[in-house]
Structures
1.
Amino acid sequence: MNQQQQQQDDIAIVGIGCRLPGGSRTPQQFYEQLVNGLDGISTDNQDRWSKSYNDQEFIASERAGYLDMKEWTHFDRQFFGTLAADACVMDPQVRLFMTVIWEALEDAHIDPASIRGSNTSVFVGQMFYATDNMHIYDIPTIKPLLRAGKGDSALRTSYCYDFRGPSLSIDTACSSSLVGILQGIDTIRSGQSDISICGGMNAFVEPTSSVHFTRLKLLGTKGKCASFDSSVDGYCRSEGVGVVILKRLSKAIQDNDNIYCVIKGGNCNVDGNFEKSSVTAPSRAAQQVNTSTALQKTGLSPSDIYYVECHGTGTPTGDPLEVQGIAGVFGDSHSKEQPLRIGSVKSNIGHTESTAGVASIIKCAMMLKNRTLIKNINFKELNPRIDLLDGRIKIVLENEPLPDDRVIRMGINSFGLTGSNSHVIVEEYRNNNINNNNFIINENNMNIMNIVMNIYINIILSFNLKTKLIN
C-alpha cells in the first residue's frame, strides 16, 4: 500500500464516551485521574452479593473495579423511547451503552437526530449477559425475554437510534471491543458506513461469572492487576463501558471535527495451536505474527512505534509471553537510549474484559491528545520471567511528556482468553493550521465577555489547543 492510499484509509476518533472504574464519566476526567495515579479498584460490592462468597472462597477477592450500581440501575427509558416492560428486562449493559453512545456523539458534536436512518454501523464487545441468571432463578415468575442472542445488544442500539449500517455484537472474550473497532474501520474503508460507533460493555452485578473464573484460577487473591510485577497471581475483574466514534480522517478534517487521534489500522488473528499448551494458554508466536502483520498492513516499521499499550493483565504466564512477543517485533529497532515504552491501563482500572480494548484505545487517544505518557502503577519489582532487553524496552513508571521531534505512534494489544489476538496502531493528529485558529470576541458588556471568555478558555484547555486569544 502506497503512502497516498494509506492516508486515504486513515480513520479519526472524533468522539469518546465512557464509564470506567474510579468514577470516570468523561474522557478528560479519565485522563486527569490517570495522570494522578488512578487506582479504580475497591471493595464496594455490598449491593451485589453476600460477603460470604468471598469468605468461603467461592470468589477469589472482594476487590474489583466496580462501577457505581446506579450506573446499571438508572435508565431514562422515556428519553430513549423505551417501553417500561422492555426497559425492565433489557440488559443493564445495553441500557448504559445506549446512554454512553449519546454522550460520545455529543462529544463528537454530532446531533443523533441528524444521523437517524443513516448507514452508521455499530460494533460492541460483550462477553456476558449481566442479569440473565437473575431472571431465571424463579421459574414461576420468569419474565419472557425476546433476544437474538448477544446480537440483540448491537441490534437494539441500532433500533433505538435508527442506524441502518452493519450492527454486530462481538464476543472474542477480552479482545472483543478492539476486534469490534477493527470491524468498524473496515466498514468505513469499504464505504458501508460513514460513521462507525464501536465500544465494549462489561458488568457483573451477580456472582456467577466471578465464581466460574475463580474456579478456573484466572483471578488473583490480591485484587489488583500488577502488570509486569513479580507479585502477580492473577487478574482483577472490572466493569466498564466505553465508546469511540470513528470517521474517515479526510471527512473529519472537512467537518472541522475535534480529532483525538488517527487510527492507522491493525490486524487480528487467532492462536490456533501455534506454540500453545492448552486452549486458554497464550501464544507468544501468534501474538508476534499479529503485531508484525499490523505493521505491514499500515506501511510502518517497528522503529516508528514509540509506545505499546499492553494487554498486561498481571498473570504469571501472560505478561512474560506478551513482552516476549513485543521484544520479537520491536527489540532490534530500539535502543537503551531510544527504548520502546510499554504500559497497561489495567494497572489503574483492572481488567474490564470485553471493554478492555476500547479502554486501552481511550487511554492512548487521551495520551496523544495531551502529549503525555501515563505512568504504570502497582509495580515494585520486575517479574523475573520478563526480559526488557537491557533497557531497549522500558516500563513507563512516571508521567512523561512526549517529544516534539517526531510523530508519535502507539501500538495497542488486546488478547482473548481462548486465543483471539488484536493489535491496533494509532498516531497523533497534527493540525498544521492549529496556530492560525484565532477566537475574536467583541462584547461591550464586560461581565458577559468574561463569562464567554472563561467558557472558551476551558474548551481550549480541555482540547490542549495552542490558540491565540485577542482582546
2.
Amino acid sequence: MDKIVALAKRRGFIFQSSEIYGGLNGFWDYGPLGVELKRNVRQAWWSDMITEHDELVPPPGAPEAFDMVGIETSIIMHPQVWKCSGHYDLFVDKMVDCRECKARFRLDHLRSSECPLKPSKHPGEHDKCQLTEPRDFNLMFKTIVGALGGEEDAAYLRPETAQGMFVNFKNVCDSSRVKVPFGIAQIGKSFRNEITPRNFTFRSREFEQMEMEFFCHPSQSLQWYRYWRDRRYNWYVNLGISPEHLILREHSKDELSHYSVGTADVEYAFPFLESGEFGELEGIAHRGDFDLRSHMEGKLCKEQGQLVVEKGPDGKPKYPGSGKDLSYFDDQSRERFVPHVIEPAAGCDRATLAFLCEAYHEDQQPDEKGVLQQRVVLRLHPKLAPIKAAVFPLIKKDGMPEKAVAIYRELKRSGIAAAYDQQAAIGRRYRRMDEIGTPWCITVDGQTLQDDTVTVRDRDSLAQDRVPIAELVPLIQQRLRG
C-alpha cells in the first residue's frame, strides 16, 4: 500500500489536502491524473445507470423494463429532512477517549487501531491506557444558514445524497414520464465528521457518492433487490477487478438497519487490510417503504416488528413529516401504494482507490538495449485510464515530431484523451506511460514517413502492431467500446 500511496503523489493522482500547511486529516485533493481517473469512474457509473440504459427492453436478469433518470440536489437541505430520516438522532458512532494519551477512537475500531503510547498496542491494552465509557458522536457537519446565526438557523452538510432523491420523488413523477418501476440516480459530495479517518482515501470526511434509488412495487421488491445486488457486483468485475479480490456479502440480521429488509455489501481486498479481510465498496439495501413514509408521516421507529411514527412526550409525532402524499397511483392496475426502495450506494473515492490498487503491478521488461528493467505498470481498464493514448516521435528530427503532433491533435479532436512526449529515450517514455496506466503508445518512426503507418504498443501484452494512421482513431475508439 505504501508504494501505491507514493505513486499516487509522485505522478499526480492524489495529494493530501492543504499539504503545505501540514494537511487536514480526512480530506484529499485529486491531482491532474487523479481527477481524470475519478471522472472516468463517475462517467462509467453514470453511463451504466443513465446514458446507456435502454428503457424499452428488460436488461438481462431484470424482472421487467424500467426507466432511469438523473438528478442533482443541494448539499444543504431543510433540517427537518434529517430529523425525519433519522440522521439527527441516530447517525452516530460510539467513541471513546484515552485520558492518558488524549487520543480518540471509534469503539468498533479499537482492535484495528494503534495507541500512540509506546510500545504500540491496541487502545486499552497498554498499561497506562485509561479509556472513557463509550458515548454517541453524531457524524453530521453542522453549519449556519443566513446572517443571524441563531440555533434556529442551524443546518447540516448532507451525510448522504439519498435524501435528496426521496424528497424529490413526487417532483420527478409529476415532471417526467416515468412509471414505477424506475430509478433516480445522483452523483455528489457528502460529508461525515469521522472520528478517525484513515487508510488513505478509504475513510474520509469529505467524499463523493454514486447513489441510485430504485422505486418498485412491494410485491417485486425482493426480485429487484437480487437484480441490483448482482448487477452492481458485476460492474466492478467488468471494469477490471478480479473476482478473487471481491466478495458480495449479505448482512446478518444483527447488522441490518432498523428499516432494512436486506442489505448486501460489495467488498474489496484492499492492500491495507489483513489477508482475508475485505473493505466495503458499495452497499445495496432493500429499504422497504421506510423513506417515503418517513417524509410523509414523520420519523419512524420499530415497535413490535412494525415501523410506526415515533411519538414525543405530548403524544404527537416527535419529528413530523411533510404531510405530502408520496404514494404512487398505477393507472393501469388502478392501485395506490407506497413504493419500496432498492438502493445501490457506491463511494466514488473508494471505487477509484480500489481500481488504483487492483491496477498496480510490478514486473521486469527489457529496455531498448535488451537489459531487464524494473517496471511499474497500472493495468487500468481502458475506460478508466486518465490518458488513453500517448504519441511519440522516435527522434526529434526528420519530420517525425510534426507527424506525431498531427496524430496527437487528431486524437484530441476525436475526444480521445491523449498525451504527447518527445523527451528521453523511447523505452523511458514507454515506462512513464505504463506507470500512469496509458493503454496504448503510438510511435512515429522512419517507416511512418514512407507508408503512413505507426507502431501501436499495448501496455499489458507489450505487443506492437503496425497500423495505418487513417485507421488509428477508429481503432482506439473501438477498443474503448470494448
3.
Amino acid sequence: MGLDFLSIAVLLIIGIIILVAVTLMVYGVRKRASRKDRNARKDRDTRLREANKTLSQDPRNAEALQTLAEVYFEDGAWEKALKTYGALISLCATNPDISEFEVSLRYGLAAVQLKQYEEAYKSLVVANSLKPDVFEVISNLGLLEYRRKNYEKASAVLRKALDQRPEHTQTMRTLGLTLTKIHKPKDAVALLRKVLDLEPDDKEALFALAGAYYELNAGDQAVRIYTHLRPDPVFGPHSALIAGTIHLKSNQFEKAEMDFELGLRHEKIRPDVLIELRYRLASSYVKQQKVQQALPILQQVYEMNPEYKDVRTQMSRYQALSRDRNLQIFLMAPSSEFVGLCRKIVLNFFPQSKVKITDISVQQNEYADVLAEIETAKWEDLILFRFIRTSGQVGELMLRDLHSRIKDLKAGRGFCLAAGEYSPGAKQFVEARLIDLIDKEELPKALKKADS
C-alpha cells in the first residue's frame, strides 16, 4: 500500500515537472516571436522613415521608391503600392537599376487586388514580354483573360501555369471555370472536384460543377447540386431556375413549381433570372392545370417586358382557358380526360342522331381519332373525327395523314378539330375532299356540345 502511494507521488511530481517545462518552452517561443515581430516592425518603420526622408529631398530617388513600394506591397496597402510602383515604371526607361519586370509584376498584382483589371492586364502583359511564362505572371494573366471573357486564350494560359504548379488551387479553380465556358465539361469536372475537395465552401465552383454535370447529361448529379445551392443568396436564384427547368422537362411539375417558388423568395435576383423564374413558374402552373394561378405571374412577366418570349400570346390563351373548362381539358388535361371530352363531343355533334363509337386511338397525346357510325333521319355514315391538341398552326401533312386514315377505314367523311389555325396548304388540300376543318374560332361551339 505504501509502495503504491510512493509510485503515485513520483508520477505526480514528474507530471508537474513536464507541465512546467512545456509552459516555459511555449512562453519562450512566444517571447522570441514577439521580439522578432517587434524587430521586424522596427525595421519596417526604419525603412519607411529613411525612404520618406530621402524622397523629401529627392522625389525621384529610385532606391527609396523601391523601398517604399516593397513595404506597401508587404503590408497589403494596395493603393499606395500601386501609386509607388507606377512612379517606378515611369523611371524604368532612364534608370537601368530598376527591374522593369519586377515593378510591372508588382504593379499588376496590386491592380488585381484593387479590381483595376485593365491596368493589371496591361502591366502583366509587359511583365510577360520581359520574362515569358513566369508562374505568378501567367496565372494572373489567365485569370484576367477569363474575366475579359477570352475563354479560349484563358484556357491556354492557365494550362501553362498549371503545368508549372499542378496543385495550385486558384489556378485549378480558374481553369475549371474557364473549361465550363468553352464546353469542355469532362475536364472541368475533374478540376472542380479537386478544388472542392480543398475548398468545399466555394459556391461558385460548385455552381460551375453542376453546370458541367448537366452538360454531360448527368442530370441527377446536377440537380442535387442545384438543389443544395437554392438557399444561397448569390447562386440560389439561378440554381433554382435550372433545377426547376430540369424538373419541368422531366414532367416533375410539382418539384419544378417548388424550385421556382424558392428561387423567387430571394431578395436580390438578377432581372434576367427573375423574369425567367416567373415565366417558368407560370408554365409549371399551367402544366398542372392551375391556370388561375398562372395568369397573375404572366402579368408580372408582361409588366417587366411586354415583348418577353410569347408572353402576350400566353396571356391571351390562358385568359380564354380560364373561362372555358372544356378548352382546358382539350389542350392540357391528361389523355383520359381528353378522350372523355372527345367522346362527348362526337356523341352530341349531330343533333337528334344515333351514334355508335366503334374505335378510339390516341397518338402520343398529340391527337385522338374517334371513328363513329352516325345515323340521322335523313342520312347515315361512318365518320372519322380527329381532335388535335394544339393552339398553333396545323399543316398539310396532318391533313394528308387524316385523309389516308379515312380511306383505310372506309369512312365516308372526316372532321378535324383544333384550337389553332390551319395553314394555307392544309386548307387547299381539303377543298376537293370530304374533310371539314374546325379551327379556334369554331371550336368553342363544338366544345359546348360536350355539355349537351
